[in-house]
Amino acid sequence: MRKVNSSLKINPEFGIIGGMKMIDGKKLAENLRAEIAAKVAVLKETRNITPGLAVILVGENPASVSYVTAKEKACKEAGMNSIEIRLEESTTEEELIKRIHDLNKDDAVHGILVQLPLPRHISEKAVIEAIAPGKDVDGFTPVNIGRMMIGEECFIPCTPHGIIKLIEFSGMDIAGKHAVVIGRSNIVGKPIAALLARKETNATVTVCHTGTPDIGVYTRQADIVVVAAGRPNTLRADMLKPGAVVIDVGVNRIPDPSKPKGYRLVGDADTEECAQVASAITPVPGGVGPMTITMLLWNTLQAAERKQAK
Ligand code: GUN
């Protein structure tokens, strides 16, 4: 069984950035990606297998285009095959599912990722369920989510898996701590709450969401706060207990004419303010994002290794 604490090692030298109490997700990601690339090289050398990741993008949502491009680049840099599939916005659900069925049968493809969100005329549920669980490197299929909940071998969703690594990297021992998760999405909130509460991790977990009247009541008692609300300034300094570790999952585009692209990215926490109270916080960008892609590479490597073991 693959535990959350995978065999990827965290180098404690790559901790906090300067005196800023920022958890350097880019450094941690670089460190782990070097280890993944070394394992890919061994797999090629000893078994003649090159892990292959198929990334499907439907339409041209600008944020999705940039995420997908970053995933494909990271895949190639790790020595894996990147199978890039770009489909028109008008692609039908049937056409997309047919492409997935073909990839399910293709031995050169070890992982399949369909970038979300999909155009409104396509059912995300039907598309996710079409992916073979053994190639579901996002960990989004009901089979993988169910297996994760009962502690069986599975693909752990990439963002929550990366968050566990970032908390460990901050130096905090998670066991026995109180973690508050803000947000209950299927991609982040629900799985990170489940992972933190697992025996291997052993935190006590509270989940806050849009139905929670006063989130600060809970976060002020938290040793760890994971904020995945999708709204800037959801977490402020006066909502934190001194010394808490903050993981900011938010990626929000704020119009900013002084920037070349006309916008800047901010998270869900007021970073500067929270950094005064927290013992460590992830920056946006450069915190959770690079780790999500790293854990995708990790899952793809696992998929290829498992297949060759069969
Ligand atoms: N859209 C936003 N995050 C993700 C992710 O982790 N995987 C996929 N497939 N789509 C996303």
Query: Helical stretch count?
Result: 10
Mean pLDDT over all positions: 94
Walk across the major sheet and give the strand order: 7-6-8-9-12
CATH class of the largest domain: Alpha Beta
User: What is the fold-level CATH name, i.e. the topology of the largest domain?
Assistant: Rossmann fold
Q: Which CATH architecture of the largest domain is right?
A: 3-Layer(aba) Sandwich
CATH superfamily of the largest domain: NAD(P)-binding Rossmann-like Domain
How would you describe this protein?
By secondary structure, the chain is an alpha/beta fold. It folds into two domains: 48-138, Leucine Dehydrogenase, chain A, domain 1 (Rossmann fold); 158-288, 3-Layer(aba) Sandwich (Rossmann fold). It is built from ten helices and twelve strands. A five-stranded parallel beta sheet has the order 7-6-8-9-12. It has a three-stranded parallel beta sheet with strand order 4-3-5, with helices on both faces. The protein has a two-stranded antiparallel ribbon with strand order 1-2. 43% of the residues are buried. Guanine is lined by residues 113-116, 138, 158-159, 187, 292.
